Amino acid sequence: GDSALQKRLLHLDLQAGKLKAFLDTSMHIDEAIDEDYFVIPDHNTINILDEYRLHRWARTKMEKNTQVGSFSYDHLLLVLNQIVKYPENKKWDIEIGGGWTVTRCGDMLSMDCTDVTIPNLHIPAKVWSVIDVVTPHAARNEVEPSVSLEVLLPAKVLSYSTISVVTAESVSHLRFTPEWRRGRTPSKLKDFLRGQQVPLHLRDFAPVVLLNGNEETKIVAVFAGKQNESRWFINEEFVPVSGDIDREAHIIQLQKHSLQV
To answer: For residues 223 and 167, what is the distance between their CA atoms, to the nearest angstrom?
Structure first.
């Protein structure tokens, strides 16, 4: 009767409390709690430990950045259902209320809130800017550049062009050919980034040195590669060859800045 049901519910509550206490002390739980992104397990099923890690990550993200909203079990089921039922869909957004949105990009989940001012989780930790464009024999700049890229840029072209650094997201329609593919069909920028094993959730933010002319915009160089192994790749048409160094080469001096995110 009712007493038996109440006793059963009490036992379930006690068991849930013990399970929560066990999970709280698990060495696997805290690994992802303070991260900006939650890594989706690479197996096809989500076990109870994965569920708990995801719930704690989302709850901690909300509590850390704002007092608005709460990540309920219903929210958890909504996100899990999207992951499990549609494993091939690796780019989506789910609004969970309170201005919060859970976003999947590749194998990563992130959370953003539009109702309050919180750090933007998508801002890259490092940004680049152009200090100067000089000839190889020019006097040293007062500001020591982080990187100097030697490129084939005739003075005539520079007279009506500008050099800037943008993110790949804004020039995804442009094409790029690395030096080792000289003479071959240029690749889409996103395909090159994928080939350099840049994580999907970071490809939009890859730094790109851009040449803006009167009638045409071209990619001069791209910063790409695995995490901690990234480097600058120069577009093959801007790579100096023998004899060009003194005649048409220029040095693009870049500065890398650190941002608090």
So the answer is: 10
Phi-psi region of 226 (alpha: psi -120 to 50; beta: other; left: phi over 0): beta
β-pairing, 175-176 with 147-152?
A: unpaired
CB pairs under 8 A, 24+ apart, for 63-72? 65/113, 65/116, 65/118, 65/119, 66/113, 66/116, 66/118, 68/98, 68/99, 68/100, 68/113, 68/115, 68/116, 69/96, 69/97, 69/98, 69/99, 69/100, 69/113, 70/98, 71/96, 71/100
> Model pTM?
0.54
Per-residue CA distances from 250 to 146, 224, 245, 253 (Å): 16, 22, 8, 10
Instruction: Please give the structure tokens belonging to residue 13.
Output: 């509550």
- Which amino acid, one-letter code, is at 221? A
Each residue of 44-90: pLDDT tens digit?
567 878 888 888 888 887 877 655 567 888 888 888 888 888 888 88
Per-residue pLDDT tens digits for 123-144: 444 578 888 888 877 756 666 7
By CB atoms closer than 10 A (0-12, 13-18, 19+), residue 186 is middle
* Residue type for position 100: W
- Residue positions counted in the chain: 261
